[in-house]
Amino acid sequence: MVRRHELTDQERELLAPLIPRAATGRPRVSDRQVINGMVYKIRTGISWRDLPERYGLWQTVYTRFRRYALAGVFTRALQQIQTQADAAGDIDWLVQIDSTIVRAHQHAAATGRKGGGTGRTNRTSTPSVDPEAGCVRVVCSD
């Protein structure tokens, strides 16, 4: 039974060959159990210490997560899975961004001066309409 926030069998089969195996040492906790713990932590946003016991010791899951991150395991896995999916025609690379979901941080407009944005800069923004795409783009110049 696959629980919520865990890898399905299909996802596990895709990821398994991309996860490094320990060559020597004592027997490890199951890769599937530990990776499901990582997925659970990332999807729920809980702290490592609050990881449910079914994933083993939180220290084990954290240590392996950190090792994989520093070694670039996740980056390589993502690249390989994307390459396979692209070759199979499963990825649509057309991306459209709706400006209503692109938000600036509250300090993005700050000038660095106390009291707000009273200073002037040499930068100008000119909105223009791209008739082919039917969207507005902003051209900045210094």
UniProtKB/TrEMBL annotation:
Which source organism? Streptomyces asiaticus subsp. ignotus
Q: What is this protein called?
A: IS5 family transposase
Q: Where are the transmembrane segments?
A: none
Q: Name one Pfam family in it.
A: DUF4096
Positions of the Insertion element IS402-like domain:
7-76
Where is region (Disordered) located?
108-130
**Which InterPro entries does the record match to this protein?**
IS402-like_dom, Transposase_6_like
